[in-house]
Amino acid sequence: MSEDRFDNEKKKLTPDTGFNLVSIDYFAEPGNQLYLVEHFEMYQDALNAKKDRKNPEEYFVLYKGTGEEFLCR
User: Fold this and answer.
1) How many Cβ atoms sit within 10 Å of the Cβ of residue 32?
2) What is the pTM assigned to this prediction?
């Protein structure tokens, strides 16, 4: 996955508070390939949900850092 390719989509899906579990739809048009799976208030809950997925490497968690930077794990 190209980091630059999804930057705008990641920013759109990053919540102001909490953590979003996001995945990729490889068949969608470029610019609309990322989609929200679920929102969590706690980081550990988002990580656990990611680990419970069939292919956890196809999911990632989006959130804002303390300096308002966009972060992805």
Assistant:
1) 10
2) 0.88
Classify the phi-psi angles of 18: left when phi > 0, otherwise alpha if psi is within -120 to 50, otherwise beta.
left
How many C-beta neighbours within 10 Å does residue 49 have? 17
Sign of the CA dihedral with 46 first, then 18, 36, and 29 last: negative
Query: What six digits make up the tokens of 65?
Result: 């850092």
What pLDDT is recorded for position 4? 66
- In 3D space, the residue among 62, 64, 42, 60 whose CA is nearest the CA of residue 51 turns out to be 60
Question: Over the stretch 10-46, which tens digit does the pLDDT of each residue have?
Answer: 999 999 999 999 999 989 998 899 999 999 999 999 9
Task: State whether residue 70 is helix, strand or coil.
Answer: strand
